[in-house]
Design a protein that fits this description.
Layout lengths: L1 H19 L2 E3 L1 E5 L3 E7 L5 E4 L2 E9 L2 E6 L2 E6 L6 E3 L2 E8 L3 E8 L2
Antiparallel strand pairs: 1-4, 2-3, 3-10, 4-5, 5-6, 6-7, 8-9, 9-10
Keywords: Signal
Length: 109
């Protein structure tokens, strides 16, 4: 029983440390082990640290989003066909509304 409790405590601590690596300002971040959904507010300096990489929303023009990803400026169109690889991540714009931009950020293999 003690081993089982210790294993559960260790697993909880490791999961907490993985998720604690994500932070944001003007954004909500929901992560699992190698992927995050990032919902960024428009009209503010929205940014997030995702999977160890800093992502900042720079602008939105029509159906394209310009991001600063770890110092690299990239423009990503909405949809899976517009996925962009940058700084070891794959970034996909899932949706754009008047208030928010939703990104899917996946770690490299």
């Amino acid at each position: 029983m003690r081993r089982r409790l210790a294993a559960l405590a260790l697993a909880a601590a490791l999961a907490g440390s993985v998720l604690a690596g994500c932070s944001s300002e003007g954004a909500d971040v929901d992560c699992n082990l190698n992927s995050c959904t990032v919902t960024m507010d428009r009209g503010v300096d929205a940014s997030a640290s995702v999977l160890g990489v800093d992502v900042k929303l720079q602008s939105v023009q029509g159906q394209q989003v310009t991001l600063d990803v770890e110092g690299n400026t990239v423009t990503v169109p909405v949809g899976a066909d517009g996925s962009t690889q940058v700084a070891g991540l794959t970034v996909t714009v899932q949706s754009i509304t008047d208030d928010q931009v939703v990104l899917q950020v996946t770690g490299g293999n």
